[in-house]
Design brief:
Elements lengths: L2 H26 L4 E15 L2 E14 L22 H23 L1 H19 L4 H15 L2 H16 L7 H11 L8 H32 L1
Antiparallel strand pairs: 1-2
């Protein structure tokens, strides 16, 4: 299988598992799920609360949350995410990553743990040098894809993406868990919106740098 196709399938499978686990976990914890989206962009298919969108590269689970919606005054909000005990507010955003991490380590064994720990530095160093360091890392990934089957390729990819999602930036699972801890389990604090905006910027910068790296790597491959 071509590495580009493997990468696309890895993205899709990671997204499906990640979003599904979070949605199931929310229901199990007694939190109301407003919608579940697989992918981004225009909706291709809607079945109840589940939406399948055009681009299968991301997704999200929308929960009942008084910070995001107006609720009736007589609603006790017992099923709202931000009214849950602290452990639930931390567990839920980490649930998808935890399952994927366990699955990937089960496939790769001890070497997978080393790859996971190394991923944090690789992500940051690659983002700082998208046309050099990131290119070397992508080259290593392509070599691995050429010499291994889909299961270990997915496991390695998932380990790297788990590390990215655990970075302490807003919109990432690590940042969501960090903000929940900083709130101390409170439903709302006045400084959270400002903090979330500032924590969003580094994550976006890293993501954009890696998009540039992927784009340049693909262009170089096509031009070769």
């Amino acid at each position: 299988m071509a590495p580009a196709l493997q990468l696309l399938l890895c993205f899709i499978l990671f997204m499906l598992i990640h979003i599904s686990v979070m949605a199931v976990c929310a229901r199990a914890l007694g939190i109301t799920v407003r919608s579940v989206s697989y992918g981004v962009g225009p909706i291709l298919l809607a079945v109840g609360k589940v939406h399948v969108r055009l681009l299968p590269l991301a997704g999200n689970v929308v929960l009942k949350d008084t910070r995001e919606e107006m609720l009736y005054d007589d609603d006790p909000c017992l099923d709202a995410y931000n009214f849950q005990p602290l452990w639930k507010q931390v567990l839920l955003p980490l649930s998808g990553v935890a399952v994927l991490l366990a699955l990937s380590l089960g496939i790769m064994g001890a070497s997978g743990w080393d790859g996971f720990l190394a991923a944090f530095g690789q992500i940051l160093h690659g983002a700082l040098a998208p046309l050099s360091t990131a290119q070397a890392l992508l080259g290593d990934g392509e070599t691995f894809a050429h010499t291994h089957g889909f299961a270990p390729v997915f496991a390695l990819f998932a380990l790297k993406l788990c590390a990215f999602n655990l970075l302490p930036f807003a919109a990432l699972n690590g940042g969501q868990a960090l903000l929940a801890i900083a709130r101390g389990g409170k439903p709302y604090v006045v400084w959270e919106e400002t903090a979330a905006k500032w924590l969003l910027l580094p994550g976006l910068a890293i993501l954009l740098a890696w998009l540039v790296a992927f784009g340049w790597y693909g262009w170089q491959a096509i031009s070769a």
